[in-house]
Design brief:
heterodimer; A: mainly alpha; 0% strand; flat; B: mainly alpha; MetI-like fold; 12 helices
């Protein structure tokens, strides 16, 4: 197991380094610095500012300083746009919010999706199955940027039940719409995957043996069918996680929740490269970490995998 | 005697059957596809949407970039969809005809999807087939590269690129091309691994055919079924991807538009009671995605019977 983790890490760490270098090179090659505004600054002032942010240094020195800072101090440098704030401050402000609604979306997508899928598989070709399949097909064409305006229209403008945006420390009224908007399409995919893999597992010989032994259905499902049926779902969780993090950009725009997505788009329009890079690297690191966890879970559940 | 009659009848049936022409794999798949009602429905819908994108502009009474200044600011009351004014879908907040805009947006969204799929088919298939065919260290290196690329959050990198190099359709296509082939490469590789041990490949190797020629002539044609299936399923994902970027305002720029940009505009207008500006782009978006998913599922059932 340890060597498996070690081997996965030997892929993960270079990947992260490539991401850091790639985004740094992209930033470096950008035409025009972050301080080239419409009203050009006097050259002395510009030189002073560039010296302050280390922009006058040669490429190798800058990238070395940056990578050193990221690796050893988790320091992504100062923001170019907000004078007195570092990228770390911005992440510390926005990330807990993103994490909160992201976590709940993930929980909702997985629990609702898996239960819907299992229910559909157990009652194949009944109204319940058709309902579940219908929901999952319908929800698949409703990505978050489609869900969000529809939810706002119905629950805020027409019914007036939920506040149209804001965060307010994460009270539930402010969480409902972001979580629904973010989780729907993933819930649908998880339900579909669960249904088909459950159907497949229920037709295998070892389930037939379990039935022949006279085990109660509940025990067959939970003890025998659940584990193998969850494998395809597990491998979908990685992409779902990435999708949800990306989707948080939309959520922050629509519901003004104030997560990192809002800062990301804001910085994208203001050419605040250090913030964009910091968030990209953070998201990349999270993705890699999450994929690692999924791989470990996979190896743990699937006895066929030798690690 | 009775049994003899039955035997004779069976023989007659059998001899009759022998006269039936053999069905090719593709004819078989076509028959399976057209038996699937949802897939045929999706196909018809898709054809209608494509016709709308190509020829819908002919029906339009307004140019997509014509701004009717008399309607500007009075959109909620004056820009209502009606046949009398020629604004079938109403107008948008700048007084442009929404019908013409939706035609244009649908066209660009479809194009983005198709370009993504074409890149995936060409690059992904060749990459996967080469990795799978040569195997060993080549395979290891090539697939490790795919693994690394896959764990990079591409949406964020693409946004970074769009910010740095400016927003243009070219950058968007480049970004979409960069990610779309990864999954296809994996699928093609997996399939190649099973094909390359078949006898006809062995024969080709034994007769001294050049490896690249084996890949192009013997392996890639046998991958086509699964490649077509995944390309069809990739198109809606690319459309969603592009819409996401355009929704943020980083994708297709004015005066061009795409369904994502139109949805974004419509979403910002709905608080003023202008629902048609969200409704029509959304309708076309949802129908397009639906149609592609149904056709893709139908093709999968038809061409790849194992995987259901």
């Amino acid at each position: 197991m340890l060597s498996f983790i070690a081997r996965r890490l030997t892929v993960a760490i270079p990947t992260l380094l490539i991401l850091v270098v790639l985004s740094f090179v992209l930033m470096y090659t950008a035409p025009g610095g972050p301080f080239n505004s419409e009203r050009p600054l006097p050259p002395e002032v510009l030189a002073n500012i560039e010296a302050k942010y280390g922009l006058d240094q040669p490429f190798w020195k800058r990238i070395a300083v940056y990578i050193h800072g990221v690796i050893f101090n988790f320091d992504f440098g100062p923001s170019f746009q907000f004078k007195n704030r570092s990228v770390n401050d911005i992440i510390a402000q926005g990330f807990p919010i993103t994490l909160t609604y992201g976590f709940w979306s993930f929980v909702v997508a997985v629990t609702v999706g898996v239960s819907l899928g299992i229910a559909a598989a157990l009652r194949q070709n009944t109204w319940l199955d058709y309902l579940a399949v219908g929901i999952s097909i319908g929800a698949q064409v409703l990505p978050n940027f489609v869900m969000a305006p529809i939810l706002l229209l119905v629950f805020t403008l027409w019914l007036g039940w939920l506040p149209g945006g804001g965060w307010a420390g994460g009270q539930w009224q402010y969480l409902v719409m972001p979580v629904i908007a973010l989780s729907t399409s993933y819930m649908a995919s998880i339900a579909r995957i669960t249904r088909s893999s459950m159907l497949e597992v229920l037709n295998t010989n070892f389930i037939r043996t379990a039935k022949a032994k006279g085990l109660p259905t509940r025990r067959i499902i939970w003890r025998h069918a659940m584990k193998p049926a969850m494998l395809p779902v597990l491998s979908y969780l990685g992409p779902a996680f990435v999708g949800m993090i990306t989707g948080s950009v939309i959520i922050d725009i629509f519901f003004s929740t104030g997560g990192i997505g809002q800062f990301f788009v804001n910085s994208a329009f203001n050419r605040d490269y250090s913030v964009i890079m910091g968030i990209t690297i953070l998201v990349g690191a999270l993705t890699i970490l999450f994929n690692l966890i999924v791989d470990l879970l996979y190896a743990w559940i699937d006895p066929k995998i030798r690690y | 005697m009775l049994r003899d009659d039955a035997t004779v009848e069976a023989l007659q049936n059998a001899s009759h059957m022998a006269e039936v022409r053999g069905r090719s794999l593709w004819a078989d798949a076509r028959a399976r596809f057209f038996r699937n009602k949802a897939a045929v429905g999706g196909f018809v819908l898709l054809m209608m949407i494509a016709a709308f994108a190509l020829f819908g502009g002919l029906l339009s009474e307004w140019e997509p970039d014509f701004v009717d200044f008399s309607l500007m600011g009075a959109n909620a009351s004056e820009g209502v969809p009606s046949f009398e004014t020629g604004h079938y879908f109403g107008t948008d907040s700048s007084g442009r005809d929404l019908y013409a805009r939706v035609v244009q947006g649908t066209g660009i969204s479809l194009m983005v999807g198709v370009v993504g799929a074409v890149v995936a088919v060409i690059v992904g298939t060749l990459y996967g087939a080469i990795a799978g065919y040569f195997g060993g260290r080549v395979d290891g290196t090539m697939m490790r590269a795919v693994d690394i690329l896959m764990s990079i959050p591409f949406m964020f990198v693409l946004i970074l690129m769009l910010v740095i190099f400016g927003r243009s359709i070219f950058m968007l296509f480049l970004g979409i091309g960069l990610i779309s082939w990864l999954d296809m490469a994996r699928i093609a590789r997996g399939q190649t691994l099973t094909i390359k041990n078949k006898e006809f490949v062995e024969v080709a190797v034994a007769t001294g055919v050049h490896p690249l020629r084996i890949i192009l002539r013997h392996i890639v044609p046998n991958l086509l079924g699964i490649v077509i299936v995944y390309a069809t399923l990739l198109v809606p994902n690319m459309i969603i991807f592009e819409s996401f970027i355009s929704f943020l305002g980083l994708g297709v720029q004015e005066p061009n538009t795409s369904l994502g940009a139109l949805i974004s505009e419509g979403a910002s207008q709905m608080q003023y009671g202008v629902l048609w500006q969200l409704f029509f782009p959304l309708l076309f978006f949802v129908f397009t995605i639906f149609a592609f998913f149904f056709v893709g599922d139908g093709l999968r059932d038809a061409l790849d019977p194992k995987d259901r």
